[in-house]
Amino acid sequence: MSARSDCRAFAMPMVLALVVVVGVMSAVMLERQSAQRMIVSRQLGWYQEHHARLGLQEGIEAWLRALPSGFDVGAALPADGHFLDLELRDGTRAVVFLHERQNAVLTDLAAVEDASVDAAAAIADAVALAFGEQGPPDGLRTVGPAALSAHTASPELLQIAAAALIGDSGSASLFATSLINDRESNGGQCTPSAIGAAAAAAGVENETRALLSRMFTVRPTLYYSTVELRGAGQGPPLARYGGYFVVGTSRGATGPSRSAFLTWEKLGVE
Predict the structure, then answer these.
(1) Rounded CA gap, 98 and 193, in Å?
(2) What is the pTM of this model?
């Protein structure tokens, strides 16, 4: 074999190796570029969603601040909770639903004030014993006040929570029945004196009466807002969002004293 043939035989594997290296490097570079594009796309999507969320929250809170002093949000809500439509700049319509959700049982007690933490824990334990991990039909929550809404808590939950606080099932039944009768006689909303009257009907001591007044309320402040983004047509929503927020019960000339979203999440499209 000649020297020239030897050189060609040596060069061929080197060329093939170079081609393989170049191919691998090209594939790596393309993969990195694709990954970078995905990262940028995700960051852009997060940025757009973040500002859309802020815009929706600000729109809802601005509407609430415009309500007259003393306006009862819960009493004014229709059965389906639909209370506001917002027209966005791109022509999308935000359909906002609002539901009072202080009937759900608080399970995260880290932010509960010392005077109520033992009572809140007693209610949470009694509910867990009665319903297990799935919780009551009213639901479970990790944010908001510890007190339960006398307007929307189910009869079963009223009974269980009252028994956990009073320590006597008979007195708890009298308390829960009094609340239920009061709200059924007043269009589903308890009267301002309902809790005191229920405690009197249960025949409890003053200390327990004060505890019941602290752990049940006729002035709930925790609501859950569901926002559906809809296009011009009549099809399903383009996207759905939801979150808990607290509305202050006292209003001045400029609107609610406090209105803040506690959670916000992207919901599935039904």
Answers:
(1) 26
(2) 0.75
